[in-house]
Structure prediction request, 66 residues.
Amino acid sequence: MKTISSIISEHFKSIKMHGIKVSIKLLSNFFEFFFFKSFHHFVLGKIIKFKYYEQKLKAFSTSFGS
Prediction:
């Protein structure tokens, strides 16, 4: 028969392990999310800049063309 203290200590060990697993999972999810978001912003920024300059170039060429 287990004593109350051993049951409690086992319970806390399992909580601790679970907590470590959860925090590792959260950390990896955060890094994945952060990396993806920054990468996404970088790509989106490049595309937006390209579109912006493309429109400027079109406006520039049409003003000279007419």
